[in-house]
Design brief:
The protein has about 525 residues and is α/β, with parallel strands linked by helices. The protein contains 13 helices and 30 strands. It holds the Pfam family Metallophos.
Length: about 525
């Protein structure tokens, strides 16, 4: 028998082949392409072979469509499981972003499923009904397959407390050590589906990033015997390999690929050959079967995105992301202005999250706003010291490096194992300077606040997004215990509200920092 395990992960609400930058945009990804391809693969499978499908998390958050269902029209939330039911998944896993809009949203999006949500390392509160079991056992022609579900235990480090009240999170590794032996006694094949990734190089085993426990995939393979296939996600990496003898996949993001693991199994239920691959959906045309389920919602989203919110006097379009990071940009200054206005502070930091951020047209629409600010961040105000601020700026300065020709590029640690452009911040309310010729620990060569040098013991209040405010992105100088107040309103709403009170926004080129290169 050939057993094929197909998996999706980190779709983030990108169903149609569009990035929503324009109404007529067309990309080579999207969940409708994925669903169509899975349908095709199932129909091509021989009668005696077996295809198992797993949705590996981060499905209900991340796009303008998901924001629309979360914040604007809740009546559309049923479409999520209507769509996944139509695909015919055998199991689902919770991603960390499943928690971003709270329990009501999560439960409504997961209602009426025809497949179980598996989570062996999460415990839900008694008033929540999302997780069905730690594992699921499937059987065909006498072959028994067990699927163990795991989710990154790092969620409490990022998520708003009210969204995870009563939830308990255990190390995925610890849970796997408990449950894999239990499954091993009952089944022939053990599949671990983990919404998490790797902090080690898959070939050498050496740490590839700071070892926090956020991504325990390598440890699952090295410390838990008895796993026959490992499905991963969370990092948006594109992985298909045999790691430590175990076929392993991670299918990127936005429905670009399907993870596929093939196990050829003999009559004694032993694995004879194994293969891991990623199946591209770039050339797939979505079928009417899936478009029919989602067409009306998609049309509503596109109409909403075209609603005008305000105007910009000046230029807030981003045409060169690297130049924006090196010299600042009116769009980033504007985001800091919104943060400072919402928090009543005069010091703020924000990031150009990725190179797809386009900034704003002269007439600013919801499309501009949600495509440029892509995360469901709320704001915090942290009381920090001057020493904390200097440490954070040095972290920012390490974002850049000089290549052999003296050109400024992005440091390897912000690009591998995945791009982390969202972890470089640009500040408003201070003046500062970096010298990239100096060692990383000495690159901050100037820092002043209200025209005076910042002292190490000086107390400062700074507006940050909630992820950064609790130290996310390897900023340990920012911690939850330094937060003095919060603004529990999504940044997209804060930006929209700002245009209500400021119908015409004048661009500002702050020019408050310089980088010597």
């Amino acid at each position: 028998m050939k057993l094929t395990i197909l998996s999706t992960s980190d779709v983030h609400g990108y169903w149609y082949p569009t990035n929503y930058s324009r109404r007529d945009d067309h990309e080579d990804y999207g969940f409708l392409k994925v669903a169509t391809k899975i349908d095709q693969l199932k129909k091509q499978t021989k009668v005696d072979d077996w295809v198992i499908t797993i949705e590996n998390g981060d499905f209900i958050q991340g796009s303008p469509l998901t924001y629309f269902t979360a914040k604007k029209q809740a009546q559309w939330r049923f479409v999520y499981t209507q769509l996944t039911n139509a695909v015919g998944y055998d199991a689902g896993i919770l991603g960390n972003h499943e928690f971003n809009y709270g329990m009501t949203y999560l439960q409504q999006c997961e209602a009426n499923r025809k497949y179980p949500i598996l989570a062996a390392n999460l415990k839900q509160p008694t008033n929540v009904e999302v997780i069905d079991a730690p594992y699921k056992i499937l059987q065909k022609n006498g072959l028994k397959v067990g699927i163990l579900g795991l989710t990154t235990a790092y969620i409490p480090h990022w998520e708003q407390k009210q969204h995870i009240a009563g939830w308990q999170f255990e190390s995925a590794l610890k849970a796997a050590k408990k449950w894999v032996p239990v499954l091993r006694k009952q089944v022939d094949i053990v599949v671990v589906a983990y919404h998490g990734g790797f902090e080690n190089d898959l070939e050498t085993g050496k740490p590839s990033e700071r070892m926090t426990g956020e991504n325990e995939g390598y440890q699952l393979l090295s410390e838990v015997p008895g796993i026959d296939a490992l499905i991963t996600g969370h990092q948006h990496r594109e992985i298909a390999t045999i790691c430590q003898g175990v076929p392993t996949t991670q299918p990127g993001e936005k429905g670009k690929y399907i993870g596929a693991i093939e196990l050829n199994i003999d009559d004694k239920h032993q694995v004879k050959t194994q293969k891991a691959q990623l199946i591209s959906v770039a050339d797939v045309t979505p079928t009417e079967k899936f478009k029919t389920l989602t067409r009306d919602l998609q049309a509503k989203v596109e109409d909403w995105l075209d609603e005008p919110m305000g105007k910009v006097s000046g230029n807030m379009k981003i045409t060169d992301p690297m130049a924006a990071r090196l010299h600042g940009h009116p769009y980033l200054t504007f985001i800091n202005q919104v943060q400072m206005a919402a928090t009543q502070t005069d010091l703020s930091a924000t990031a150009l999250f990725n190179d797809e951020v386009l900034g704003y047209d002269e007439t600013v629409t919801m499309r501009n706003i949600v495509n440029s600010y892509v995360y469901p961040n709320t704001l915090v105000v942290s009381e920090i010291t001057g020493a904390d601020l200097k440490a954070a700026l040095l972290r920012c300065a390490s974002f850049f490096t000089l290549d052999t020709s003296g050109q400024v590029t992005v440091s390897k640690k912000f690009q591998e194992p995945k791009r982390q452009y969202y972890n470089y911040d640009i500040y408003s309310g201070i003046n500062y300077a970096f010298d990239l010729h100096k060692p990383e620990s000495e690159r901050l060569i100037a820092l002043s606040y209200h025209g005076k040098p910042v002292r190490d013991d000086q107390k400062l209040e700074i507006a940050l997004n909630q992820y950064r405010g609790i130290g996310g992105g390897d900023y340990p100088m920012f911690q939850a215990n330094k937060i003095v107040r919060e603004v529990q309103i999504d940044m997209t709403e804060l930006i929209s509200d700002y245009f209500v009170t400021h119908p015409v926004v004048q661009t500002t080129d702050e020019q408050n920092f310089r980088i010597k290169k």
